[in-house]
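Long-time lurker. I teach an intro course on protein structure, and each term I like to show students one example going from raw sequence to a predicted 3D structure in token notation. This year I'd like something fresh instead of my usual example. Would anyone be willing to generate the tokens for the chain below so I can use it in lecture? Attribution to the forum is fine with me.
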Amino acid sequence: MDIKYYVYHFAHLHTAKLKGKPAPHKAVLLLAVMSLIERGSISTPEIELTDELVDEFKRIWAEKLPSTCPFSCDISKPYFHMQHEPFWRLIEHDENYWMVAEELGLYAEETKTMAKGYTISAMREKFRCAKIDGELYNIIRCADNRRELENLLISKYLTYEPPLNKRHGITAMIGTALLMVA
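-- Reply from a regular --
Happy to contribute to a lecture. Here you go:
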């Protein structure tokens, strides 16, 4: 597989939508993972849900998303639901196999699997780590490839326009007043 495969899948992440906007959680999680790979904090395809990953997720969320973003900053659900993507697998502590959404008939099983809820502590208790494809890990290690994937994620999932009436403050109010006069 080459970068085109991952470009396609990053551009077509399975996300929730709110008012037609895709949820940014998976994109922010991938950006956080790429950032930690770049820094050397993640040195294998195994992605543990460490405090450092949680902090990087929060940092990127605060930096890239406006305060008007209708979604809440929470890493636990995307860490779990990323397994619906073909390049991300969850590895449980007590079993040495990859938990694959399709194998579980997941939509019915998710409730049972996450009976304790989607919390960081529940994720850490249930899963040893997530594992990305080795090919994806190597692609991310290359700066040019990483930038291409980062730019894609930012432009597709992290671009939010404020509502028209809040976009320009006084200009919007003047425009509304002019419409009322006309």
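Some talking points for your students: The mean pLDDT is 82. The first helix runs from residue 3 to 11.
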